Amino acid sequence: MTAISLRNVDISYGDTKIVHGATFDVAEGESFALVGESGSGKSTILKAIAGLAPEWTGDIDVLGQSRGHGVDYRFASRCQMVFQDPYGSLHPRKTVDSVLTEPLKIHGIGNRDTRVKDILNAVGLDQRFRFRFPHQLSGGQRQRVAIARALILEPRVMLLDEPTSALDVSVQAEILNLLKRLRAEQGLTYLMVTHNLPVVGFMCERMAIMNKGRIVEIAPSTALHDGSFGDPYSQSLYAASGGNPDLKEIV
Ligand SMILES: Nc1ncnc2c1ncn2[C@@H]1O[C@H](COP(=O)(O)OP(=O)(O)OP(=O)(O)O)[C@@H](O)[C@H]1O
């Protein structure tokens, strides 16, 4: 089954069209990257899928259901987003426990105590962090909380917006390994924005390369080994990354 399908999606902020005709499919269980320079519209695509960029046209389907405009609670339990900045994305005056319990309350899900304990275990956070506030956690711990918050509703699809780029290099590797393990354990589908080609090689099967709001090529991540990209822009992005990125660098 197709987890995410975009057909001719245009996305605008006011009068400015940011994304032009985005079309791609992500299979269920696949990990797919959106890559390209800063400002090329990668995050904007994730936001439109998540309902955070209201001005779009075209078709967005998630798990076989057409995505409407705006917030959709039923949709939230199937598809969740993790943001780049774990400092900004967690409310400063809410404990980890309340951050994790809130989505369960909103969706009327019981057995909350067990679910919170289990999700902390799943993301590798000790139970003693449960009643702490974000400022009492490291950047990596905060990102684990953000991942736990996304996973607590047991979604099938995760939208990951540069989930490690705000973190120290050693912590980046920990979080990438965590995301990789969770995907394997739970059969999740990932759509991931990154500007880091080694991360694509480590995490993803395929990538769409974006330039100025347009997808110029969809390539398997094996192209990172030999540079076999078809589009000149993709080739220049690959060359600028130093070619054949050393995937061991991040693990
Ligand atoms: N809320 C907004 N209002 C107006 N313009 C926006 C808004 N958010 C993003 N943009 C513009 O949309 C364009 C694409 O931004 P987007 O964040 O999607 O790029 P990106 O490829 O994800 O880059 P980055 O890697 O820097 O996040 C940029 O020119 C940006 O200035």
TrEMBL record:
Keywords: ATP-binding, Nucleotide-binding, Transport
Organism lineage string: Bacteria, Pseudomonadati, Pseudomonadota, Alphaproteobacteria, Rhodobacterales
Residue ranges constituting the ABC transporter domain according to the UniProt record: 4-237
The UniProt record lists the keyword NAD: no
The keyword Iron is annotated on this UniProt entry: no
Pfam family for this entry, one: ABC_tran
Record-given protein name: ABC transporter ATP-binding protein
MF terms (GO), sorted A to Z: ATP binding
